[in-house]
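Q:
My hope is that you can spare some time for a protein that puzzles me. I hope you can help me see how the letters and the C-alpha cells relate. Thank you; the sequence and its C-alpha cells follow:
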Amino acid sequence: MSTKSYRIGIDVGGTFTKAALIDNMDGSVAGRSSVHTTHDHPDGVAAGVIQVFERVLSDAGIDARDVVLLAHSTTQATNALLEGDVARVGIVGLSSAKAAKLAEVQVRIDGIELAPGRVLQTSNQFLLSDGLDRKAVEDAVRALRADGAQVLVASAAFGVDNTSTEELVRKVGEDFDLPTTCGHEVTRLYGLTTRTRTAVINASILPRMIATANLTETSMKNAGIDAPLMIMRGDGGVMSISEMRHRPAMTMLSGPAASVAGSLMHVGMSDGIYFEVGGTSTNLGVVKAGRPVVTYANVGGHDTFVSSLDVRVLGVAGGSLIRISDNSVREVGPRSAHIAGLRYACFAPAEVFENARVVFFEPKPGDGDDFVAIETEQHGRFALTTTCAANAAGLTSPEMHCYAPAEAARAAFAPLAAKMGKDVVSLAKEVLASAAGKVMPTIRSLIKDYQLEEEQQVLIGTGGGIGALLPTVAEGLSLRFEIAKDAEIISSIGAALAMVREVVERANPDPSSDDIVHLRTEALEAIGKLGADPKTVDISVEIDRQTGRIRAIATGAAALRSSGDTEAVTERQARRVAARSFRQGEDDVELVAETPGAFVYRPKADFRHSLRIVDRRGNVRLQRSHAVVHQTNVENWQNSFQSMNLFGPEDPIDAFFGAVLLYDTHLVDVTDESLFSNAVMIVDSELSGVPRQTPVVLIGLGRPTAAEH
C-alpha cells in the first residue's frame, strides 16, 4: 500500500458510467474512465460501477487499497419516478381523537400521477392514536397488504414531536416483511399533508433502491473494495449507503447535484449560472455566494419536503436531433441520437458522406416523421445533431470534449443544405439558434427569479456536450462564459469531492438560544449517521421569522478509512492552493489571517476584496468577494463584530450585511440572516464551551467597496 490516497467519484448516467480518480491531498485528477451503463446486467447499474472502478484504477496503476472513498451519483430514484417503476404504498394515518377530523383528510394521499399514464398507487387506513395497541396496527397493515401494498408509510399528526406511534407501525411492518417509511424520518417540519406525501414518494422507491444498494455492496465486497461507499444526494451532499436504504428520495436529481458539486469544489465556482449539457438534456441552475440554490422538489405537480437543487431541466443538448419543416429548422430536440440509436455524423471521416442522402424518419412511434438524418450506402445512417452543427459552424476547439474536424461536420450537413438551398455554415447556425432559443428563456427566468445582476453573470459550462450550446447561448444573451476544466467528467469529480450534508428543520417562529443549541446538537447527530467525520463538521443555522421556521445545515467531510490521518499542508502549500483558486501567482497572494485549522488569503491587488479560506488539509473552504477581515478571539468577538460596521446603507438598528466566523477549521455562516440579533444568537450558541482565548476570524460579506462605486 502506498503513502498516497485517492477518492473515486462515479457518475451513473443514462448512457455512460464515468469515473474520476482524485488525489486525496490536492484534489487533482489522477485518472478517468468510462463504460456503458449496465442497465440490462443481472446486477443492474452496480455492475457498471464496479467495472469502471476497476478500469480507472488499472489505467492509473493504482491499488484498490489506496482508495479511501468511493462515491457515486445515481439516476435511479429519478428514473423510477419518471418511469413509474414504483411499489404500491399502504398508508397508516394516525391522530388523536381531538385532531382526527382534520388529520384523517390530511394523511389520505390518493394516487400520484408521476407522468402521463404512470401513477403511484396508494391504499389508506386511519387509526386513532389514543391508547393505540399493536393488534389495531396489525389489522390495518393486514388490510393494506390484502389491497396490494408492497411498502408502508406511517404518518401521525404531530409525529415530529412524538414518534412512538409511527415507530410502532414500523415494527409491525417489519413483522409483515414490508419496508416502512415514517413521516418523521423524511422531515421534522409540520405540514401533515406534505410530510405524508413525501414519505409516500420515499417508500414507493424503497424496494428498487434497497435492491440496488445490496447489489452494489455485494459487488464491492466481491471485488475486494474496502473503501466506504457514499451516494450523491439531490441537494449537493452525499450520504452513506445505509442511510440511502431509509431515505432514497433524497437522491432525486443526484446527477445534476454532482455536476454542481464539481463546479464548486473542483472549478472554484462562487457566483454564476451553471450550465450542464449532456447528450439528451441540459441542466441549468444558480450559485450565489458559493452556495447552490436549494429548494423543495416537486413530484408530479405535488410539493414535497425533499431538499434538492433548483435545477431547470431542458430537452435539448449535444445529441439533440433536428426536425425540418417548410424548408426551415422546425425544432431541435427533445429526441436525441442516443434514443434513435444513431451515431453522430461529425465523428465520422468526411469521405464517408461523399454520396450520402437525406432521409426523414420517426425515432419512436408517435414522434412524427420530420426528423432528419444522413444515410450512406456502406456505413449506414448517421444523426445530424447540435454537436455536428457547432463543429460545422466552427464554434468548437480541440480542447472541447465535443470537438470534431469542421470538414467532417460540413460534409455531413452538405446534402441537407443542398436540399434546402442554403449555405452549410448558415444552416448549422440556424440549427444552433433554434437550440439556443429553448435555453435562453430559462436563463433569463433564473436571473429574474433570483434577482441576479445580469451584467455580472457568467455562464459556467460543464458536461461533455457543453461546446455544442454554450457559445451560441452566451452570444445571444451577451453574457460571459467559461467552460470548466475536466468538464466532461465534472459530475464524477463532484461525487468524489462532495461534502456530507444534512438539514434539520423545525417550525419555531421565535427560537431561544437553547432552541438553537438543541437544533445544532440534533444536526450534529444526524450528520454523524450519514458518515461524516465529526472533526470536519460545520453547522449553519438559519432563522426565518416570516415562515416561522428554523433550519440547521450541517456539512462535513466523509469519514475515511485509511492508514492514517491526512498530513496537514504547510502554509506555502495552502498559499499555492489559494493562488490556483484566484488564478494568480503565489507571490501575488497574501496571508491576512489564520486559525489553528485554516489560513485566510487575498490577492495583493484586488479592488473586489476577494478572499479564500484554505484549511490545513489543503481544501478551499470558502471563497468570497467584497469581504472585510478582522482577527480577534472568542472573548472579544461581539465587540469586534459590532465594530466592523456591517450595517445597511441606512444603518437600521437590527439589519446588516452577511458575515462568516472562522475558528479552528469551523465556519459559522450567518450570511442568510437579515437581523443582527439573530446572527449574534447563532454565533453565541456555536461558541458556547469554546475556550475564551481561541483565535477567531470575522469575515464581513456583501458590502461593495468604495472602489466599486
Remarks:
- The first strand starts at residue 6 and ends at 12.
- Residues 561-566, 648-655, 703-709 have pLDDT under 50 and may be disordered.
